[in-house]
Design a protein that fits this description.
With 429 residues, this protein is an alpha+beta fold. The protein is 38% helix and 21% strand. Strands 1-5-6-11-10-9-7-8 form an eight-stranded mixed β-sheet, with helices on both faces. Strands 13-12-14-15-16 form a five-stranded mixed β-sheet, sandwiched between helices. A hairpin with a 7-residue loop joins strand 9 and strand 10. Helix 1 runs antiparallel to helix 5 and helix 5 runs parallel beside helix 9. It binds adenosine-5'-triphosphate and magnesium ion.
Length: 429
C-alpha cells in the first residue's frame, strides 16, 4: 500500500494566493529597511553545530531541545539547520572582516528551523526578518531599532495591535550578582519549581524567569529584580533608551521578567507583543549583544539587533483590512488549430517584448472551453487566434473585465491597446 507523501510536520507550503501576501509584506520590509540604510546579507541555512552552541548558549530551549542537528555522513561533521539568524550574521561578519572600517547595518530574511510542538503561530520551519547593527556602542542604535520597528507597525497598520515591552539585563557583573540572589530565592521555593526550572536552577537561573508554565507565574513575578542590581553605566544606557522612546512618543512597559530565550544579550532587551494571537503573542524580539562578536572569535564589537516572526505578523495582517491582490495578467491568449498555436507563441513573445504580462493557453480544447479559462484567469483581455487570424497575421481582442466589442487588429495595434488599457484601468465588475 502506498502512503501519500506529505510535507514534514510543522513545515508549511506557502501556496499561490498566500504568497501574494508574503510578497507584499517583503516589499514593505525592503523599502522600510532601505529607509534606515540597512543592507541585506544572505547566509547559508546550514551551519556547524558549534556556532549555535557557542552563540545561543548550551542551557537554552533552542540548544537543548529545538535544533535540527545531524551528522554529515560524508565527512562526519555535525551540522545544524539554523534556528535563528544572529549567530550566522556574526560568524559571517567575522569571517569576512566586515567591521574592518566601522559599524555595519545588516538585515536578512528567510526560513529558520526549530523542533517545537507545532501549533498556531509556532512552526518547525518559520520565517524571520532580522536586523543586526554591529560595531555600534551607545544607546542610539537600540533606540533606532525601536523607532524603526514602531514605524513598520504603523506602515503595516498594526500600531494598535502591538505593544512594546522593555527590560535591561545590565552588564555581566550585575547579572552575576543577580544570579546568586535569584538562586537563593528559588532555593527557598524549591517545591514550586517545575522540572525545567529545577534543572536550570544552577546552570541558567535567569532562564527560569522566561518560563511559560502558568503554575510558576506568581513565583516568578515575586522574584528579585535585576533592575535593582544595575551599575551606573547600565542604568544610564537604559535611561537613555527610555528617553529616546519618550522623545519619539512611543509607549512602552518595563517588564523586569523579560530575559529572552538566548544567552547572548546584555543591557537592552525588548519584545513587541500582541494579544490577538493567543499564546504565540511575541511578533518581534531583540536586544543588545555586546560580547557575542568577541565570544565567537572576532575583535570585540558592540552590537544589537532583533528578529520578527513573519508568520505571526501575516496572521495579524490577515485579521486586518490588509489585502494583497495578485496583479491579473494583461491578456490570456486562446488559440485553436495548429497554425494558430504557432502564431500564438509569437504573439505572446511580442506582447511580452512590449512589457505586457501574458498567459498562453495550454492543453488544447474548444474556443468555448478556452474562453472559460481566460475568464477565470482574471486577465483583462482575451487574445483570440484562429487559423484565419493566424493566416492574416492578426488577432481578435476581447475585453473580459469591462464592456466593449471584440475587435480584430494587427499585432502592433494590439500591444498599443493593451498598454493603454493598463494605464487607464477600468473598474472591475
Ligand atoms: P517564543 O517565546 O514565542 O518561543 P522566542 O523567544 O523563541 O519566541 P526568538 O528566538 O526571539 O523567539 O525569535 C524571534 C521571533 O521569531 C519571535 O518573536 C517569533 O515571532 C518568531 N518565532 C520564534 N519561534 C517561532 C516558531 N517556532 N514559529 C513561528 N515563529 C517563531
Ligand atoms: Mg521559543
Amino acid at each position: 500500500m502506498s502512503t501519500a507523501l506529505r510535507a514534514v510536520r510543522g513545515m508549511n507550503d506557502i501556496l499561490p494566493g498566500e504568497s501574494a501576501h508574503w510578497a507584499r509584506f517583503e516589499a514593505c520590509v525592503r523599502a522600510w529597511l532601505a529607509a534606515y540604510g540597512y543592507r541585506e546579507i544572505r547566509t547559508p541555512i546550514l551551519e556547524h553545530t558549534g556556532l549555535f552552541q557557542r552563540a545561543i548558549g548550551e542551557v537554552t530551549d533552542i540548544v537543548e531541545k529545538e535544533m535540527y542537528t545531524f551528522i554529515d555522513e560524508l565527512n562526519g561533521e555535525s551540522l545544524t539547520l539554523r534556528p535563528e539568524g544572529t549567530a550566522s550574521c556574526v560568524r559571517a561578519a567575522i569571517e569576512h572582516n566586515l567591521l574592518f572600517d566601522g559599524g555595519k547595518r545588516l538585515w536578512y530574511m528567510g526560513p529558520m528551523f526549530r523542533h517545537e510542538r507545532p501549533q498556531k503561530g509556532r512552526y518547525r520551519q518559520f520565517h524571520q526578518v532580522g536586523v543586526e547593527a554591529m560595531g555600534f556602542a551607545g544607546p542610539e542604535l537600540d533606540i533606532e531599532h525601536l523607532l524603526m520597528t514602531a514605524r513598520l507597525w504603523r506602515e503595516l497598520g498594526l500600531a494598535e495591535a502591538i505593544r512594546l515591552e522593555l527590560n535591561t539585563l545590565g552588564a555581566a557583573e550585575a547579572r552575576a550578582r543577580y544570579r546568586a540572589k535569584l538562586i537563593a530565592y528559588f532555593e527557598a521555593h524549591l517545591d514550586a519549581l517545575d522540572e525545567d526550572a529545577r534543572r536550570r536552577l544552577y546552570s541558567n537561573p535567569l532562564r527560569i524567569l522566561d518560563t511559560k508554565n502558568p503554575a510558576m507565574q506568581t513565583l516568578v513575578a515575586e522574584a528579585p529584580r535585576l533592575m535593582d542590581e544595575l551599575d551606573a553605566p547600565a542604568r544610564a544606557h537604559f535611561d537613555a533608551v527610555c528617553q529616546g522612546l519618550a522623545d519619539a512618543g512611543i509607549p512602552y512597559r518595563v517588564n523586569p521578567r523579560l530575559v529572552r530565550g538566548l544567552d547572548y544579550y546584555n543591557d537592552t532587551v525588548f519584545e513587541w507583543v500582541t494579544d490577538r494571537l493567543g499564546a504565540q503573542g511575541t511578533v518581534c524580539a531583540g536586544g543588545r549583544y555586546d560580547t557575542l562578536v568577541e565570544q565567537l572569535g572576532g575583535r570585540p564589537a558592540p552590537a544589537c539587533g532583533f528578529a520578527m516572526g513573519v508568520e505571526r505578523l501575516l496572521a495579524l495582517l490577515a485579521e486586518s483590512a490588509w489585502v494583497a491582490e495578485e496583479t491579473p495578467a494583461d491578456a490570456y491568449i486562446v488559440h485553436v488549430g495548429a497554425a494558430a498555436a504557432r502564431f500564438a507563441l509569437r504573439v505572446g513573445e511580442r506582447l511580452r517584448d512590449a512589457g505586457l504580462n501574458v498567459v498562453l493557453h495550454g492543453g488544447g480544447g474548444s474556443f468555448k472551453a478556452q474562453m472559460k479559462k481566460a475568464d477565470a484567469s482574471r486577465a483583462l483581455y482575451a487574445v483570440i487566434i484562429g487559423d484565419d487570424e493566424a493566416a492574416a497575421g492578426e488577432l481578435s481582442l476581447k475585453p473580459l473585465r469591462q464592456a466593449g466589442e471584440q475587435q480584430r487588429v494587427g499585432l502592433e495595434r494590439a500591444a498599443e491597446l493593451l498598454k493603454a488599457s493598463r494605464s487607464h484601468p477600468h473598474p472591475q465588475p
